[in-house]
Specification:
The protein is of the alpha+beta class and 217 residues long. The protein is built from four helices and nine strands. A seven-stranded antiparallel sheet has the order 2-1-3-4-5-6-7, with helices on both faces. The radius of gyration is 20 Å and the shape is globular. The relative contact order is 0.15.
Length: 217
Amino acid sequence: MIRTLGGIAMLSGLLVVLVYQWTKPFIAENQRIAIERAVFQVVPGASRRVDVCLDGSGIVEGGTAQGETVYAAFDEQGGLQGLALEAGAQGYQDVVRLLYGYDPVCQCVRGIKILKMTETPGLGDKIAFDPGFLENFDALDATLDPSGSALTNPIRALKHGKKQHPWEIDAISGATISSVAVARAIDNSMQRMAPLIQRHLGALRDAAPAPDAGGER
């Protein structure tokens, strides 16, 4: 009986491994498609993207890169329309992960797309679709200070109805923790990445895909 149970356990483990290996490329492809759609959603006007890795020295090659992935989004003529970045912060239930668009011209956040969350249905999950909340990101201020090393004002969420400045986020009533998670995720990312993006903006513009390169490079 022990041998039988052992054999069943080994067979079950083998099946799990085989299923994982078989589904791995499909999962990766679905993730790629989801990211691509999200990039074009948070960077209006873009139809092509280039994935680059950015660190303090500028754009670095993928093999040994230690920097952070930035999705540079271009229009059909090769003009840089903006950049999309992933960010995350602890929410009410778990980490809220999102993609946001950054416009380096206005130095502002142009839109967000929630990638993953387990916030409370009917309350916290409104951060993904509530029109009033999403309006916060039409032109959320992320201007650098005179030194160019940090944001002039930290991005923060306030209780519903308390917003007074363009760098503030009007939280959803009853979902303040989830709203704060979104604000914290973007602020942490922008404090780190906005100075790098502005410093290496020329190189990012030069990363435009060739005219015949299709929708992605």
